[in-house]
Amino acid sequence: MNINQSICEAKSNLTYMKAVKRRLFWLKITNPKAGFYERLCLANGYSKSHIENLANEYGITCEEFCEEEVVAWQS
After folding, report:
1. Cα(first)–Cα(last) distance of the chain, in Å?
2. Is 60 helix (H, G, I), strand (E, B) or coil?
3. Which one-letter DSSP state was computed for residue 1?
4. How many other C-beta atoms lie within 10 A of the C-beta of residue 44?
5. Is the dihedral of CA 52, 70, 7, 4 positive or negative?
6. How far apart (Å, rounded) are the C-alpha atoms in residues 68 and 51?
7. Could you tell me which of 64, 56, 69 has the C-alpha nearest to residue 34?
8. By CB neighbour count within 10 A (0-12 exposed, 13-18 middle, 19+ buried), where does 38 fall?
9. What single DSSP character describes residue 18?
10. Cα dihedral across residues 39, 41, 43, 48: positive or negative
11. How many Å apart are CA 1 and CA 72, to the nearest integer?
């Protein structure tokens, strides 16, 4: 990989991260009672009802379910 490819990759990663930050900010405004992990799940395509259904199925809160999902993504 040469320096130009590295620069282009860094710029695209920065653009992506800015888009994620804007999406999380918007979700914080539209879902004020949602926790951080729940907003991450919403940003990754989960619907609020889907999260609630899965959390009820496992007998845990929505935030706990989302935290477990995010930890699973990181592994």
Report:
1. 26
2. coil
3. -
4. 13
5. negative
6. 12
7. 64
8. buried
9. H
10. negative
11. 30
Q: What secondary structure does DSSP assign to 50-66, as a single string?
A: HHHHHHHHHTS-HHHHH
Q: Given the structure tokens 């009820």, which residue do they identify?
A: 56
The answer on pLDDT for 74 being more than 80 is: no
Task: Work out the pLDDT band at 17, boundaries 50, 70, 90.
Answer: confident
Distance CA 18, CA 32 (A): 21
In the numeric block, the tokens 């845990």 are attached to 60
Which of the pair, 13 or 72, is modelled with greater confidence?
72
Per the prediction, the chain carries an average pLDDT of 87
Angle of helix 62-74 versus helix 48-58 axis, rounded to 10: 100
| Among 72, 64, 70, 26, residue whose Cα is nearest residue 44 | 70
C-alpha–C-alpha distance, residues 48 and 69, integer Å: 14
